[in-house]
Write a structure and sequence with these properties.
homodimer; alpha+beta; seven-stranded mixed β-sheet
């Protein structure tokens, strides 16, 4: 498949909500059956009860005795970006690159994607939909001692499938130190062995599920966000757009190049480079017991204020995972953050307001983030110190809410870490004062920047939610 | 200027060899006059005679007492890429991001660039042509105690000029630890104060100078390499190509998108991501006096074999630089390396053979390099262990040599570090066996990958040399 064929196939799949599974009820029934059949037991345990996890010295950190998986380390952050010049925090260090892979196949003329019903201990509802493969290197080198992940060979063995997309993408820079995963979409032209935990779905079905809370997991969202909904070089076939809601048509069209884009790609690169060069962030390793404002107890590493997040231990018992019983640390989050994009029709083309984002785990300085990304703490702050544009989401006024759902972050590392994701469209022509570190981009421009790893995961999460054929967005 | 206007202006400037300076004789005469008038005195001195530079402890390294500029540190490298699994070496650590900036202005309807005749202590011929501004952060924060670099304000003060290009670009990963500079081209629409060390030149004049040995310095070459010679989205005006040599026309056309490109951009990203994920390189800091195979004496840090490079000290006396007298370490290189691209018409479109390059200083794993980049040592190795494709450059046979000149690497850090740069075109239809870590790209594709910092400096150096209107290339 050439790029242009693949992109036409993506658009067709996106507008299709009836596939191998004929309707959303069938999708949800399969999901619910799996949920009834298999269950993780997740219990909070003190650190001392974690099997093979321990506090390691020099500097003091929490890690697996094998040296594999990940460690939780302390850092001090110093920066000239944003309102807080310095803070300490724990952070996850997981240097290895994992694979988040989506297997695709044309069935009945429509591209389908093989989704997995997968349990993760940190999800509020345990079971969510993941991509076909979600494998850390420890996973597939089998440190767990379990089976190799199903379907992994289509992503690792040359010739087993055609690669449509293979990109290194950053994860949460506020929680992970320089972490990246390979995001892959590969296509086969033949049947593959089935399994009860996996189902073929159209892109439209996945988008429809993204309209609900806590079903499509973060790993699936980041891969889906990289799938372009139209060919940037070719306006979408108007026949395919027929009957779609007007905002949805604007979304598809915003993927296409146009001379009505507010900024050129060179200007966007210059804006990002300027931000990278202007703002610095120094990150120094510190022992976990020497972080200012943080306390290490037998049960948790938490902030004195009770805010932000804490490191806890959990013990897991499972029937269907690669290993049946294990324990591990997780980053527990209380409350819901808010992640949102403002968008607006400008000269007829839908633009999204991006904001430069600099976080301690970023591998290469500033990344492109959504208009707003803040914790519940910040969202509840008084009007005087509220994050910029917060009001536009909490009280949209003349704006139109195009997307509003709660999604979970990676349940293999985070415990009950959920954000409210919103997209709000401003009325055309309404003027907005924006600071230097914000910029309007089309979806095609965001997609082109994302292809090179410049767009952060919060922004990608929102991009994934766009284009649902039966919703406002 | 919009992207497309700028790109048409670049192409016109590239084809023009008569500008403010009417011909190449005038350019060379100005350069020679400056060379006669001003001179650096450069003397080798022992490390103990370096003013304000010293060996600093924990780990032992060579640095400036202010903590500014750069340090020379030791590293151990371990990798699964290439034939040598592990080695030790000194490397330059210069974490700050400098500016390499070219000021442009339309004069008589043609875009001109303000080039500087600049002395650097490490150049074999001391004087070379640099971009308008070549400033480290130490430079412009004036650690030298000297003047701020001339014309710097056009690159740092918003509103003084229009930014055409502003990108972070990596430098030699074999010699610099994660070093990057901002490469900028900005344009003004009015006169700026002149200075005897600066002259306005067309892109065609710069390209013509690149056909000669050791005139256009590395910093100028990397900025010039990022200037697209045609608009990727619009075939070049055939009138502008009239009268150009046939290879030159193929060069301009190779910047334009086409459905005859051998690989799609998604496939190119997938290839690079695959390389980044597959090959690792661990870099561990080591004290300079504990590097296997290296000896530290009063005069130099050198390899026991006498090969590779050595760290030396020089004392410099100057009349026209920011500071009039200083001393510093440089990396001395003996012999000339070879850097080359193979290219070939495929389906009528000129493609270049890129090779994945993994070096210890790379910030993000594999980068896109030229077909060959090797030291004189490697180039002289016996046939059995010669670098891949070496023979195609040393004995082109049916191939056509399109470019062949010796260029100097950064004279502010390197002493007599020169490479022979070559571009050889293979006959159309001639089959070449290429390994997995090589890939054919058009110039437009290389340019688009370079925009995001994926193309290494050796490859960019060669791209800069393409498009000279009066030469074979």
């Amino acid at each position: 498949m050439r790029d242009s064929d693949a992109r036409r196939a993506f658009l067709r799949s996106c507008r299709t909500v009836s596939g191998v599974l004929p309707d959303m009820d069938t999708v949800l029934a399969w999901f619910a059956a799996k949920d009834r059949r298999d269950r993780f037991e997740v219990r909070r345990v003190p650190f001392a009860a974690l099997d093979q996890w321990d506090f390691l010295p020099d500097p003091l950190r929490l890690g697996h005795v094998s040296g594999k998986f990940f460690t939780i380390e302390g850092i001090r952050v110093e920066t000239d970006f944003g309102p807080v010049p310095s803070w300490d925090q724990p952070i996850i260090n997981q240097p290895e690159v994992g694979i988040l892979g989506l297997l695709a196949r044309e069935i009945g003329g429509t591209l389908h994607f093989l989704m997995q019903a997968k349990m993760e201990p940190g999800n509020v509802n345990i079971l969510q939909l993941s991509p076909t493969v979600q494998a850390t290197r420890s996973n597939y080198s089998r440190v767990h001692g379990g089976r190799a992940p199903r379907y992994l060979e289509y992503f690792t063995e040359p010739g087993r499938a055609t690669i449509l997309l293979d990109q290194l993408q950053p994860e949460q820079g506020a929680r992970f130190l320089r972490k990246r995963n390979r995001n892959m979409v590969v296509v086969v032209d033949h049947d593959v062995p089935g399994h009860e935990d996996f189902r073929w779905m159209t892109l439209g079905q996945i988008k429809a599920l993204l309209g609900r809370d806590d079903i499509v997991n973060m790993d699936a969202r980041t891969v889906v966000s990289l799938i372009p909904l139209a060919d940037p070089d070719e306006p979408p076939d108007e026949g395919l757009l027929d009957g779609l809601p007007e905002f949805c048509r604007a979304v598809f069209r915003s993927y296409c190049r146009s001379d009505r884009e507010r900024h050129t790609m060179d200007a966007i690169m210059a804006w990002l480079t300027g931000g990278k060069a202007r703002y610095g962030m120094d990150v120094t390793p510190l022992p976990l017991d020497r972080l200012r404002g943080w306390q290490v107890t037998d049960e948790a590493i938490g902030h004195e204020s009770g805010l932000y997040f804490s490191v806890i231990g959990v013990a897991v018992e499972a029937r269907t995972r690669e290993a049946t019983r294990w324990s591990q640390p997780l980053l527990h989050h209380q409350g819901q953050g808010l992640v949102g994009f403002l968008c607006q029709r400008q000269d007829g083309v839908l633009h999204f307001l991006a904001r430069g984002s600099l976080e301690p785990g970023n591998r290469d300085g500033m990344e492109i983030g959504p208009t707003i990304a803040c914790s519940e703490v910040a969202a509840r702050a008084g009007r005087s110190c509220a994050p910029l544009f917060l009001e536009r989401f909490l009280d949209p006024g003349e704006g139109t809410v195009r997307y509003d759902a709660v999604q979970s972050e990676e349940g293999g590392r985070f415990h009950h870490f959920r954000n409210r994701y919103m997209i709000v469209e401003l009325p055309e022509g309404q003027d907005l004062d924006i600071p230097d570190h914000c910029l309007w981009l089309t979806l095609g421009q965001l997609w082109r920047m994302a292809r090179h790893g410049h767009v952060n995961i919060e922004a990608r999460n929102l991009l994934a939610c766009l284009g649902a054929p039966e919703a406002g967005s």
